[in-house]
C-alpha cells in the first residue's frame, strides 16, 4: 500500500470498511517523515487481519491508542523492517498477539534511529516467550549496516522451548566471546529447526569452534535441520569452506551471504512482484537502491548493484 499524508487517519476513522482486510504492506512516508507504530493499532483489532509488513516505522508515538489487552489480535505475521522501535513498543505489540507465527524485526537501515532508543534484548526475549508454541519463523537483525552500529547489549538466551522452523539472528544475540554462550549451540537452539541463519559473523575463533562442534556432534538432536545460512561482516572464506565441507558430509546445505542487505533487497523485490505492485513502483525502488549504492560505497554495494541490475531485467 502506497502511503498518503492522512492514510492512517482515514483508515482509523472508518474501520468498518476494512473488516475483511487480511494483510497490509506499508513502505514508509514519501516525504521521509517517520511512521508511528500507534497508527497501526486499529489493524490489530480487525477480526480478519492476519499480516502486517511495515517498513521505516519509528517513533512509538500514540502507544496509548493500542489499549492493549493481552492476546486480542489474531495476527499471524508481523514484519517491521528497517525500523527504529525500542523494546517498550515491541512489548506492547507482541502482548496483543495470540496466534503469532512469523515475527521479523530489522533495526535501522533506511529509518533513522534516535540515539536514545531503549532496546534490551532480554526484554524482547521475554515478550517473545509467550509465543514459543506458535512461532515458526523468527528473524531479528539489530545491526544497522548504514551506521555500522548495533543495539544488541545482551544475548537472547535459550530458545530450546520454541517450535521454530526458521531462525535468523545476529551472532551477538546468541552470545559473545566474553559470555561464551556460543560454546554449545545444542543447548540454546530448538530441535524443530529446519534452517538456521546467523548474521554478522567475523573471524573470532570461538564462533567457528561452536559451529564446527555443532555440526560434528550436535545434529542428532536436530532431525529436521536442512540448511545453515551464514552472513559475514569480514571476509572469512577459508573458514567457511572448511565448514561447508563438514556440513556436506552431514547432509546439511550451507549458504554464504556476505551481504546482509543483499538478501533483504531480493526479498523486497519479490514481495513487490508477487503483490502485483506497479512496474513503475518497482523501477523506482531499483533506481533508489542503485543511487544509494553510489552515495554509500559500503563493502556490499557492488554486489547489491549487480543483483539489482539482474532483477531489473524482469521489469
- Mind telling me the CATH class of the largest domain? Alpha Beta
Q: Which superfamily, in CATH terms, is the homologous superfamily of the largest domain?
A: Ribonuclease Inhibitor
State the helix count.
Answer: 9
Number of strands: 13
The helix content is 25-40%
The largest sheet, given as strand count, sense and whether it forms a barrel, is:
9 strands, parallel
The ordered string of helix (H) and strand (E) elements is: HEEEEEHEHEEEEHEHEHEHHH
CATH architecture of the largest domain: Alpha-Beta Horseshoe
Task: Give the overall form.
Answer: elongated
Order of strands across the biggest sheet? 1-3-5-6-7-10-11-12-13
| First-last Cα distance | 19 Å
**Which residue ranges are poorly predicted, with pLDDT under 50 across at least 5 consecutive positions?**
1-5, 146-150, 258-264, 266-278, 296-301
Beta-strand percent range: 15-25%
Structural class: alpha/beta
Number of domains: 2
CATH topology of the largest domain: Leucine-rich repeat, LRR (right-handed beta-alpha superhelix)
Amino acid at each position: 500500500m502506497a502511503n498518503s499524508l492522512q492514510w492512517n487517519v482515514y483508515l482509523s476513522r472508518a474501520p468498518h470498511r476494512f473488516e475483511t482486510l487480511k494483510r497490509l504492506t506499508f513502505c514508509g512516508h514519501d516525504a521521509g517523515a517517520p511512521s508511528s507504530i500507534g497508527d497501526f493499532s486499529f489493524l490489530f483489532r480487525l477480526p480478519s487481519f492476519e499480516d502486517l509488513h511495515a517498513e521505516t516505522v519509528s517513533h512509538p508515538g500514540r502507544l496509548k491508542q493500542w489499549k492493549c489487552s493481552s492476546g486480542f489480535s489474531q495476527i499471524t505475521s508481523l514484519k517491521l523492517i528497517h525500523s527504529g522501535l525500542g523494546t517498550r513498543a515491541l512489548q506492547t505489540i507482541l502482548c496483543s498477539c495470540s496466534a503469532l507465527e512469523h515475527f521479523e524485526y530489522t533495526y535501522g537501515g533506511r529509518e533513522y534511529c534516535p540515539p536514545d532508543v531503549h532496546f534490551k534484548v532480554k526484554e524482547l526475549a521475554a515478550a517473545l516467550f509467550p509465543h514459543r508454541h506458535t512461532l515458526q519463523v523468527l528473524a531479528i537483525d539489530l545491526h544497522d549496516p548504514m551506521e555500522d552500529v548495533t543495539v544488541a547489549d545482551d544475548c537472547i538466551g535459550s530458545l530450546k522451548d520454541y517450535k521454530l522452523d526458521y531462525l535468523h539472528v545476529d551472532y551477538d544475540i546468541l552470545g559473545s566471546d566474553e559470555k561464551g554462550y556460543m560454546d554449545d549451540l545444542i543447548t540454546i537452539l530448538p530441535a524443530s529447526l529446519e534452517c538456521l541463519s546467523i548474521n554478522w559473523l567475523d573471524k573470532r575463533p570461538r564462533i567457528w569452534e561452536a559451529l564446527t562442534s555443532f555440526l560434528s556432534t550436535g545434529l542428532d538432536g536436530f532431525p529436521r535441520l536442512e540448511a545453515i545460512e551464514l552472513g559475514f561482516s569480514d571476509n572469512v572464506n577459508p573458514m567457511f569452506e572448511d565448514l561447508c565441507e563438514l556440513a556436506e558430509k552431514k547432509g546439511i546445505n550451507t549458504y554464504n551471504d556476505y551481504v546482509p542487505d543483499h538478501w533483504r533487497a531480493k526479498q523486497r523485490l519479490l514481495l513487490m512482484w508477487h503483490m502485483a505492485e506497479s512496474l513503475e513502483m518497482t523501477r523506482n525502488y531499483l533506481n533508489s537502491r542503485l543511487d544509494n549504492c553510489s552515495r554509500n560505497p559500503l563493502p556490499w554495494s557492488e554486489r547489491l548493484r549487480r543483483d539489482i541490475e539482474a532483477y531489473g531485467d524482469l521489469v
